[in-house]
Amino acid sequence: MIHAFALLLLCQLAGEIAARASGLPVPGPVLGMILLTVLLITLPGLADRVRGVAQGLLSHLSLLFVPAGVGVVAHLDKLGPDGPALLAALFISAIAGLSVTVLTFAAMLRLTRNTDEAPRAGY
Amino acid sequence: MPVTDIWTYLSEGPLVWLTATILAYMVGDALFRASGGRPLVNPVLIAIVLLSALLLSTGTAYGTYFEGAQFVHFLLGPSTVALALPLFENRRHVMRTALPMAVALVAGSLVSMLLGLGIGWVLGLRGISLLSLGPKSATSPIAIGVAEQIGAAPSLTAALVILTGIFGAVTVTPLFNLLRVRDYRARGFAAGAITSGIGTARALQVNPTAGAFAGVGMGLNALFTALAAPYVIPWIFG
Q1: Rounded CA separation B180/A24 (Å)
Q2: Which residue in A has a C-alpha nearest to residue B63's C-alpha?
Q3: SS3 state of residue A120
Q4: Interface subset of A 60-89, CB within 8 angstroms of B
Q5: How far apart are CA A20 and CA A15, in angstroms?
Q6: What are the structural domain ranges in chain B?
Q7: pLDDT in tens, B2-36
Q8: How large is the angle between the packed helices A28-42 and A46-59, nearest 10 degrees?
């Protein structure tokens, strides 16, 4: 467990250093994710060693956003008189963005005849 | 020692607020499971409401709360790195969908950004408030960086990113059902690209492939927003 956690932190650290050093406009942890993916592809045996810790963190990823979310509520008054307009613009554009992304992705899958065995929602 | 003194002592340290954060989330998660995974019964939303009520009723400042909550908050970084695991396990799916991802990313990200600014303008927003809407679909560190570059308010942008994420977490499942898109690659990718971390957390709750594509969507939109927004947004308002 300690090895897996050390590997995650080292990848994040390398990502932060690479982001700062290169001036790339990508967050350090995202570069760390890319680095770990490359490591896993190169050394597939690593996957079993990080699986426990990685799945543990990801299965409760929601929890990690709670402190920031409480911060938003604590500072909700800072939205001020612009609050309703900001929320309306945010909600409508998020729905539009989600719809365009998912429909474009699905249309491109059909166009490239990429209808393979990927799992589907059974709603 | 009187109860009030014990409380005064405990409420100043990190233990109470770290414990409260995890317990509030456990309540939210239990309700989420009891509801059979209904998207509206979102564990993050429930935990935020419970904790906000607690802070308000005890007169606790957010800074004091965050002393304890920071330990949870810090794990966001290593968890983002951990997204490499679902990405690795779904690498064949991901490689085969490079073109659909690229086209969907550019289309969806631009719609989210431009429509947000357009509606905000129509509703009377101007200046810093309006600009702060621009990068809301990107993950927080990128959105904050873009906000600084284009002269928006970083703290307002950070709040809008979280609100977008919570809104996405409760919306994506009914919305995608309504649109009749059942493919988990498309559903996860859209959730991650447009509603970043909290949307990705929701996708991971639903399906591992959706979670992997959400992680890719979040990463790609971080890159796209960072590269495009500093040019697109000033160009519109130039």
Answers
A1: 38
A2: A71
A3: strand
A4: 60-76, 78-79, 82, 85-89
A5: 9
A6: 3-74, 81-237
A7: 888 888 888 878 999 999 999 999 999 999 999 98
A8: 140
- In angstroms, the separation between the Cα of residue B170 and the nearest Cα of chain A is 11
Chain B residues within 8 A of A50 when measuring between CB atoms: 82, 85
And the tokens for B65?
């709360």
Which residues from chain B sit within 8 angstroms of residue A49, using beta carbons?
A: none
Burial A15-32 (b: 16+ CB within 10 A, else e): bbebbeeeebbbbbbbbb
Amino acid identity, residue B164? T
The 8-class DSSP code of residue B179 comes to T
Contacts of B73 in chain A (CB under 8 A): 64, 67-68
Closest C-alpha among B215, B116, B151, B188 to residue A121: B188
Is there a contact between B212 and B93 (Cβ–Cβ < 8 Å)?
yes
Nearest Cα residue in chain B from A26 = B223
Tokens linked to B228:
């495009």
Q: Residue B223 corresponds to which tokens in the numbers above?
A: 């890159």
Nearest Cα of chain A lies from the Cα of B238 at a distance, in angstroms, of 21
Q: Dump pLDDT digits (tens) for B98-150.
A: 999 999 999 999 999 999 999 999 999 998 999 999 999 999 888 988 898 88
